[in-house]
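Quick question: who can interpret this fold?

. . .
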Amino acid sequence: MKKLACLAAGAALLLSVIPVFAAKSNDNGFDEFGYNYQARLFNGKADGVDRVLDGNLWGDPTYANDKVVMKWSKAWDEARFHGAEWTCDAWEDNEWNGKVPEGSGETWHYKIVWVGPDLAASPCWREGGYAIWGQFEVILSQGTVANEHIWETHANPAGYGAK
């Protein structure tokens, strides 16, 4: 789905290029794009996920006005930004709300965990998920498109830290 590709790219941004300490535009910890690295949180329009406020998300306006909340664990943060080893406690959560003025109309919720390069053979793997980005598993993916509810995956267990 196109939404997963956009969301995957947003989370991939967390994995690759986001600086650890971004300049703050106000005193509440959030930068102008919607990231608060101290709280391990993004809260803003999808337009800010790619760190370019241009009315687009990676050049596409379809989802730019959607409201996005991304959260990531301390283990995710320490492995990605501080050189720690990845652990089964590394997770990232994405909530996407396009039911806003000029939004896409779609809603999605994703839970993503690190499982390592062995993927389904990893002790971190959960039954019912699917692989993404070579070392991660989507353990929950559900949303609405055109008012139809879609469950893409629901691993067991779908909670963080449960193994």
Summary: Residues 2-154 form one domain. The first strand starts at residue 35 and ends at 36. Residues 23 and 51 are 12 Å apart (CA to CA).
